[in-house]
Specification:
Elements (H helix, E strand, L loop, with lengths): L4 E2 L2 E2 H19 L4 H14 L5 H4 L6 H18 L2 H9 L6 H16 L4 H19 L4 H15 L7 H14 L9 H17 L21 E5 L11 H4 L3 E2 L2 E7 L19 E6 L1 H10 L3 E2 L14 E8 L15 H5 L2 E7 L2 E2 L14 E7 L7 H4 L2 E3 L10 H18 L5 H14 L5 H7 L2 H19 L2 H13 L3 H15 L5 H19 L4 H11 L10 H7 L6 H26 L7
Antiparallel strand pairs: 1-2, 3-6, 3-7, 3-9, 4-5, 5-6, 8-11, 8-12, 9-10, 9-11
Length: 598
């Protein structure tokens, strides 16, 4: 079977091609977990004989995958001791212009993202930037896209800053036996970051000026909230006007549903009955005050008295994430509230109210939800983490001696690796052990910090790259690129990086790095050049996704809070892709000149 050829590929190559296309299609058009998709792909490649057992599961023993897993513990120590909070508190300041604000924001974010998870950094900064923007009088939508961009550009500045760098460097070491230095991409990354910051400042008019989604819960008539009349309510039998529920302070009645769930006319003379739904638009504090004084309750199920309502509740705001199971559904038709012990109180979309009962709204990605939750509410459960991202952060760690210790541990890890004293994996193990030994985090926090889904995707991506190389697909694609681009190495490098930048807008940058590694490697070697500079350029390219909100998890984190539309990223992101690509090719060829193979 291996020798049967069709259109230049053998059977194993076609199985790999179909598996890869099927895998990416599933991740693009379904909500299936990415780790399960990669595991299924590994299974197919193994069962069909494309890869043997050792090859199929080599990703799980890869040093780069293990490094990522250990680094999660290091990150937990830095997070728990408040290093990120200290940096935010002391570095942002009060700049007096937009250009200074962007610079003060992007540089520390980029530095942090060089050593920590991009997603962790952005998740922390989202709430800080929203408060900071109010203080500066700048719309958060003008700062949140630069925040996400900075995390991506900062991530490429070290090998540990972003998964593609680790996976490409790991594959390079396996191929050549030579390990890349942890600071290999620092100068190219810093140059691209500088160009990126200047480009954002120059193109600031292309950034949208959107309403902040949660402002829909602050301004009159910018949100909706649904209340219910309990069966023992003293106002039952009165008209809306008599009960004082028709004209209310800070809002207005926009919907009325009787027990049969049929909309009723909204007039002053409409009678109130037990179980009625009343939908109001207005200021949230005024609505809650009115609900308390009139003994109304949040509408989640039929309540017979005020004593049934949770007294020690808190209000949290969250947005519906991409890929959420809530998209296309209504809260009314699901058990989401009951399963997660929360109540939907209001819904907004891009900062404007939705004129219907919140629980009847068909939810979309980016919708902002106002939720009534218990005082001690865990936002990190599996069912919530995959569906909602909460605006407000959890407990803020105390700044103290642990902050200093964890910082020293991180600096020592980077220094020992950069100086070649130990391998990166050895340094990461020592740093993780030190974090636990000096109680920067405890064992439970360390284990909870490990993102097993990311590790699964990471391992699967390494196996994917191996299959593409083993079956000859990489060589075929490399030959095709050489046929089109000729033998000019810079043109070939640019072409592969351009395609890589485009592909990473739609698939994970880890998968893109693994997929394009063998292609870039084959192209460079066929041209007779050392593949090292080609692969450095590839590292920057596959992490340079600016044009779609699905191109990076950090884009998804700011999409809802910024009140963005899909096109907002394309307007500035397409230009950013081209600018950073040009900067990348220029600086890599200056720092790492092309050298012929010996």
């Amino acid at each position: 079977m291996e020798n049967v050829m069709f259109l230049g590929f053998n059977l194993y190559a076609w199985i790999t091609i179909i598996t890869v296309l099927g895998m990416f299609s599933i991740m693009l058009f379904t909500k299936l977990r990415s780790d399960l998709v990669f595991l299924g792909a590994i299974g197919i490649l193994y069962v069909t004989g494309v890869l043997d057992a050792k090859e199929a599961f080599s990703g799980f023993s890869s040093s780069s995958v293990i490094t990522v897993g250990v680094l999660f513990v290091v990150i937990a120590g830095l997070t728990q001791t408040g290093v990120l909070h200290w940096i935010v508190k002391n570095l942002l300041g009060t700049p007096n212009s937009y250009s200074k604000a962007v610079t003060r924001l992007m540089l520390p974010v980029a530095v942090l993202s060089s050593f920590l998870s991009n997603t962790t950094v952005v998740a922390l900064f989202v709430n800080i930037v929203k408060m900071w923007s109010k203080k500066l009088g700048i719309s958060p939508s003008k700062l949140l896209i630069p925040l996400s961009y900075a995390s991506g550009m900062g991530g490429v500045c070290t090998l540990i800053g972003t998964p593609p760098n680790l996976i490409i460097s790991g594959l390079y070491e396996a191929h050549t036996g030579e390990a890349m230095n942890i600071l290999t991409t620092t100068i190219p990354g810093l140059f691209c970051l500088t160009i990126g910051v200047l480009s954002i400042i120059a193109m600031q008019r292309l950034l949208p000026d959107r309403k902040v989604p949660e402002s829909a819960f602050e301004a009159t008539s910018e949100y909706t909230m649904e209340l219910r009349v309990p069966s023992d309510n003293p106002y039952i039998g009165m008209t809306l006007a008599e009960a004082g529920l028709y004209h209310i302070k800070g809002g207005s009645l926009i919907g009325l549903y009787h027990f049969d769930n049929v909309p009723s006319p909204i007039t002053e003379d409409e009678f109130i009955m037990g179980g009625d739904h009343l939908v109001y638009a207005g200021q949230i504090d005024e609505i809650y005050q009115m609900a308390t004084s009139h003994q109304l309750v949040t509408a989640d199920h039929h309540v017979f008295s005020m004593s049934e309502v949770e007294q020690n509740s808190q209000i949290r705001t969250a947005y519906v994430t991409f890929g959420s199971n809530l998209i296309g559904t209504t809260i009314e038709d699901s058990s989401f509230e009951k399963d997660n012990n929360l109540i939907l109180a209001a819904v907004a979309r891009r900062g404007t109210r939705i004129n219907e009962a919140p629980r009847k709204v068909v939810l979309q990605a980016g919708d902002t939800l106002l939720l009534a939750c218990p005082k001690h509410f865990n936002i990190n459960t599996a069912s919530l983490r995959g569906n909602l991202h909460f605006f407000d952060s959890g407990d803020i760690p105390n700044i103290g001696i642990g902050t200093f210790i964890s910082t020293i541990i991180m600096i020592a890890m980077v220094a020992l690796s950069a100086l070649g004293v130990m391998s990166l994996l050895q340094c990461a193990f020592l740093a993780a052990a030190a974090m636990l030994l000096f109680r920067c985090c405890n064992a439970d926090q360390a284990m909870k910090a490990v993102n097993w889904e990311i590790l699964m995707v990471f391992a699967g991506s390494a196996v994917l790259g191996l299959a593409i190389q083993k079956t000859g697909i990489a060589e075929w694609l490399a030959n095709g690129i050489l046929d089109i681009c000729g033998t000019n190495p810079i043109v070939v490098m640019t072409a592969v990086c351009f395609v890589g930048t485009f592909i990473t807008e739609f698939i994970s940058n880890t998968a893109a790095g693994a997929m394009f590694f063998p292609i870039m490697l084959q192209a460079a070697e066929k041209l007779g050049y050392d593949p090292f500079p080609f692969l450095v350029a590839l590292m920057v390219s596959v992490s340079s996704s600016f044009a779609t909100p699905i191109g990076s998890p950090t884009h998804m984190l700011v999409y809802g809070p910024g009140g963005y539309r899909f096109s907002d990223f394309m307007r500035i992101g397409l230009l950013m892709n081209i600018i950073i690509l040009a900067a990348n090719i220029l600086i890599v060829n200056i720092i790492y000149p092309l050298t012929p193979l010996q």
